[in-house]
Hints:
Elements: H1 2-28, E1 34-37, E2 46-52, E3 62-65, H2 72-84, E4 89-92, H3 111-124, E5 131-135, H4 137-148, E6 155-159, H5 172-177, H6 182-189, H7 191-207, H8 216-219, H9 228-248, E7 260-264, H10 273-282, E8 287-291, H11 298-301, H12 303-314, E9 322-326, E10 332-333, H13 335-338
Parallel strand pairs: 3-4, 3-5, 5-6, 7-8, 8-9
Antiparallel strand pairs: 1-2, 2-4, 9-10
Amino acid sequence: xxxxxxxxxxxxxxxxxxxxxxxxxxxxxxxxxxxxxxxxxxxxxxxxxxxxxxxxxxxxxxxxxxxxxxxxxxxxxxxxxxxxxxxxxxxxxxxxxxxxxxxxxxxxxxxxxxxxxxxxxxxxxxxxxxxxxxxxxxxxxxxxxxxxxxxxxxxxxxxxxxxxxxxxxxxxxxxxxxxxxxxxxxxxxxxxxxxxxxxxxxxxxxxxxxxxxxxxxxxxxxxxxxxxxxxxxxxxxxxxxxxxxxxxxxxxxxxxxxxxxxxxxxxxxxxxxxxxxxxxxxxxxxxxxxxxxxxxxxxxxxxxxxxxxxxxxxxxxxxxxxxxxxxxxxxxxxxxxxx
Length: 339
């Protein structure tokens, strides 16, 4: 009986601690932008977005889509500043992430469904024919948008994209989260303390071999991830992505919008060869920008190269079909130039 009481007290204290931590995160990082409510198949769904800059004649606006385990602040902190000096930029929290609601759509974990939701939001905000840049998980959303509405976007930029099914599985805790009852208890007891312990290592691993900027986790409000509703949404997205990509990737040869694929060749989070290189091979006329010695976060480690690629698409410049390698010292090498 004593052991049972101690166990109840232990889990009860974790529930209280986690609830207070979630409340602290919400108070510390309130919405940084505005909300838009959708209709149609997404009736009642509110998405959070951050807009900056002004539309200029001859330069397309830019939509930024973040990856897994994050929110719009990751892309906005990395790219919105320099891009907004040239054009209008809108970054969205994907459904269930940051301050966006998850909604009631039964297939909301499908990148194609998220693409339709964000496309509707962008259209209602007056964003016409944007360049769509998606990082990691968000690249699958950007690619789905290009497949669904090739005339509606001016350019596509997958950044360190997760674009194809991969060998192996996913992290064990995503399966736990989806387990009835046990998942609910796990979300409300173990995620916050576990997240706080593992967060520094996770950030470092995501940036490796680059170094994360000082205060990165706080700048992007990473603790918001450990709220039960957001962590569940993140797990659902992650657990279902492989199956969705198995179907979606079969159609990449249909993509006809101007495309620049950007990846670090030292990315240990999402394999460049399996994803970015293969996507470049599938999309006719696309340009592959390889950033030598760079990991999964080029929008921080090699910001200038990423901004250059986005703005070239926004200005209507044709991608340089083939491969471009940019070395750590800024030296640019193209196969035709080296021949």
